[in-house]
Task: structure prediction
Amino acid sequence: MDIVRILFSYIIFPGFIFSAIVGLFLTWIDRKVTARIHWRVGPPWFQPYADFLKLLLKETIIPEGSSKTLFLLGPLLGIISMSILAVMLFSMNFNPTSSFVGDVIVIVYLLALPPIGIIIGGSSSRNTLASVGASREMTQYFAYELPFLISLVIIILKAGGSIKFGEIVLAQQAQGPFLYSISGVIAAVVILLCIQAKLSFVPFDSPEAEQEIMCGPYIEYSGVALAIFKLARAMMLFLLPLFLISLLWGGFADWWAIPKFLLIIVLIVLIKNTNPRLRIDQALKSFWIGLGMLSIIGLVLAFYGL
Amino acid sequence: MANPKLWGLKKSPWVFHVAAASCNNCDIEILDLITPHWDIERFGIVLVGSPRHADALLVTGVLNRKSLPRVLRVYEQTPKPCLVIGIGTCTCHTHMFERSYNVVGPYNKYLPVDVYIPGCPPKPEAMIMGVVKALKRL
Result:
């Protein structure tokens, strides 16, 4: 029975299928809010599902001269890591005292897998624009990882030196969410901008800038492979705000999590729609110098308990 | 919803714009379609940047010796099933360039065009109606 329960949690709820369905719905919210900001009507609610279904049933072309295995492995890494992340996030919030619910180190590696998948896919697709996109994705990954890790250290310091997820959630239930302090706000701002970069949304969308390099690493993908890439992106849009809520805003085991979650989603979409795109060197500079310094200040404040 | 393949294709036709040496009039009118006034994202139509993502090719302009191999190559790179929609009078026949030394003839000699939208340039409303007709024919 145990193995059935584990498989159920990874494949159906809250793993692959549940987070995919919710994630696709959130991409509709993204598109609809974007459309309303432009004073447009926007697509109907079933639009992402129609897109996904259509892509699943279309022809998948593998470009001549590309590495077939790597080309098809690229999209898979993203959805696999996101399914595992979904199970971890839900078990850390609803069952925080169980023996192993993962820790911060695991999540850093799981969040590294989708960009690695994009880099593998982009560089194996034998296209100039795709390799430009892949190299930008790599640069951007190294750029946002530094402030992201420092702000995770802030959270660890505030949780009393524990890297286990269950203990971070329990510490927040005991002493209130970490967000309600100066260093907590700094960590939240830094992680929010890192989420923006992980999702490749404007202002950090130079890896797949549609107007200059035509979707970058995804340019040669079609059919099922493209659908899986879109799905991994949709699951990230669902899971990364949940990750922010559970590490900084007191977890999502109560109903208050839904307005918090919608607030973060709308904030991400608003940042996306009101900013110009940064060049890759500007993005690197703003992450390493601007947000890096900000998160170090937050680290010092957290060290003194502020 | 009886045929999921057809339903998906009808509800989200992604469009790639092949400007085969047109005079840019039709191209500007196509860009009008994604402005707030007409907003074809209501119907799930999105302008994509790569022929690999496309379900429909919008071709504009008269085919000439230089553009013919490019247009054919873009058509071959598009995953099937895909629609071909000819925008403007130039695509229906050779328009006023009929006697030109460089023109190789109308599109239907080389490509399976699904719908022609005449006009120089056609109005955005006419284009939306043409796309609707093309989707109804599926």
